[in-house]
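Collaborator request, handled under Task 6.
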Amino acid sequence: MTAEGTDIVDGAPPVLAEVVRSGFVESRHRGSLVVLAADGSVDLALGDVTTPVFPRSSNKPMQAAGVLRAGLDLSGERLAIAAASHSGELFHRDLVRRLLSEHGLEAGQLQCPADLPLDPVEQETYLASGAVRDRVAMNCSGKHTAMLAAAALRGWPLDSYLDPDHPLQRLIHRVVEELSGERVAAVGTDGCGAPLMAISLTGLARAFRFFVLAAPGSAERRVADAMRAHPEYVAGTRRPDTWLMRAVPGLLSKMGAEAVQAIALPDGRALAFKVEDGAGRALGPVLRRALDLMDVPTGELGRAAVLGGGREVGEIRAVF
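Structure tokens returned to the collaborator:
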């Protein structure tokens, strides 16, 4: 696998995408990207793929595997939303409330911040109804509900379930290290308040490969199967992760904030990348080009138009 225009200049990562307006390149997005072959070897590496990064929500499948290993019995859409950055659509909020009720919990016990739905269309409807910021509407509420439920099941403290030294978080820490094949380099605080483990992009791709190749019935395979069977609960009806998992049989996909993306194919090939400046607008074009290099058809997925006066005058395009 080869890519052009990827030289690192003065230690800076290569340009992965550029913004073209009226034929003029007005902005560039640098980043790093790794593709693993089916046997787990590195097939393509652009930029620095061994230095730790915060994968943000791309870590959620590993966190969901952790709650299963803690003994929580989830399946189907309930397990999918435990690994989700959901859009806050009505069906997401309803399922989170059902999960809370089923495990004897209340929304007030969630320690994710109150927020509006992530999806802009849903957000307009939500606000027009007179609703206000709410923890259940926050995109990580499914993960937090699962963490609380796992802690309750094990008799662990509920009020400190986000403490990095909490038994559940220590278990998740071990899961991240096991699946990524490397030590967690740093522990930070994610946007939702949960502990966030730093690993390299290669480690992240390795973990996603682990999920799709795991034995049926294992925690990791259960997470992968639930996400792939119910992608609308992982993201939403208008989100790329959903479209991609619906379009490509067996593909596992999870994006993270600050322009992180990880995928794995059922044959063991995997991909992880991060756009250095965190610009989410570059995610689609970079993902589309990477999947093209992996011979995975994407159709119009990932195309990003640049508008001027309400009409298309350019595009954001990958340049590797």
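The cover message to the collaborator said: "The radius of gyration is 19 Å. The longest helix spans residues 141-154. Please let us know whether this matches your experimental observations."
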